[in-house]
Amino acid sequence: xxxxxxxxxxxxxxxxxxxxxxxxxxxxxxxxxxxxxxxxxxxxxxxxxxxxxxxxxxxxxxxxxxxxxxxxxxxxxxxxxxxxxxxxxxxxxxxxxxxxxxxxxxxxxxxxxxxxxxxxxxxxxxxxxxxxxxxxxxxxxxxxxxxxxxxxxxxxxxxxxxxxxxxxxxxxxxxxxxxxxxxxxxxxxxxxxxxxxxxxxxxxxxxxxxxxxxx
Length: 215
Ligand code: GRF
What we know:
Elements: E1 4-10, H1 15-24, E2 31-38, H2 44-51, E3 56-58, H3 66-79, E4 84-87, H4 96-101, E5 106-110, H5 122-129, E6 133-140, E7 150-157, H6 164-187, E8 191-194, E9 197-200, E10 210-211
Parallel strand pairs: 1-2, 1-4, 2-3, 4-5, 7-10
Antiparallel strand pairs: 5-6, 6-7, 8-9
Helix pairs in contact: 1-6, 5-6
Bound molecules: 5-O-phosphono-beta-D-ribofuranosylamine (GRF).
């Protein structure tokens, strides 16, 4: 079966992108990374992708309208013949027009158990609230930020002595496990969006989409 031609949108470090690349390095994996696009010329992710031999492109967002930026982004994605998108630390809000063109072919990862802690500074806020668990979420992208049907989540404990950095590091490890899993399911054609919910076809039971951690 043809592998899902996936482009990754990044703005910074790119550790989730690297986790996706590592999964896709296996020829048996049902998706491949055909390109990486950053709105930030200095993103470390661009160098990582280049070093791996993956086309890495910069699309500038400054000094132009959102629509203009997205038109170029869309053109580059067409050039790459991408059929699927993964946001991995991509720090731009996309318009409804762009989101609609990639509807249900576009994932994002967020470092909280959505719908809790949308937006920025999630770990500081979780610690300040004294929650005992945090985690991460892979979801389909919708025009509303950090909303959209949830594909998979992983929970991690919040310890008494945690700082935002120590919690972020624990959550990031879980991110690197669930994002490749979500992309694998997408590549296998197993994700069905029903309203606000995602059904994982062929999952033996529902715990497959609830890592806590199961593997
Ligand atoms: C991750 O925590 C991701 O969940 C959030 O931004 C961070 C990006 O990290 N959206 P990296 O660039 O993937 O290392």
